[in-house]
Amino acid sequence: MKAEDYCKKCPECGSVDKNIDIVKVPKKTEGIPEDVLKKAQESGKLTIIRCSNCRHIFEYAKDSKMDVEFKKICIQ
Questions:
Q1: Is 74 among the domain residues?
Q2: What domain of life is recorded for the organism (predicted)?
Q3: What are residue 41's phi and psi, to 5 degrees?
Q4: Into how many domains does the chain fold?
């Protein structure tokens, strides 16, 4: 996913917040690209970019190292 794509709205709910989740490889693997699934099965982990609000899946990352680093800053 390109850096400018992280700011796009979710097609399901319109939210712009996203989570990067690292999960175990699920038993149901339909919809996951084969090259991503092969690497995930080798490591036992799958990296998913999801909407924070509705959990819509934007992308399955090919490896756990992300191209862009984000830092969350809270101002109160």
A1: no
A2: Archaea
A3: -70, -30
A4: 1
* pTM of this structure: 0.67
Amino acid at 4: E
Which long-range contacts link 61-66 to residues 24+ away (Cβ below 8 Å)?
61/1, 61/20, 61/36, 62/35, 62/36, 63/39, 64/22, 66/20
Residue 39 within any structural domain of the chain = yes
CB-CB neighbours of 50 under 10 Å: 18
Q: From 39, 40, 29, 33, select the one nearest 59 (Cα to Cα).
A: 33
Q: What is the pLDDT of residues 29-70, one digit of tens each?
A: 888 888 888 888 888 888 888 898 898 988 888 765 555 555
* pLDDT, position 13: 92
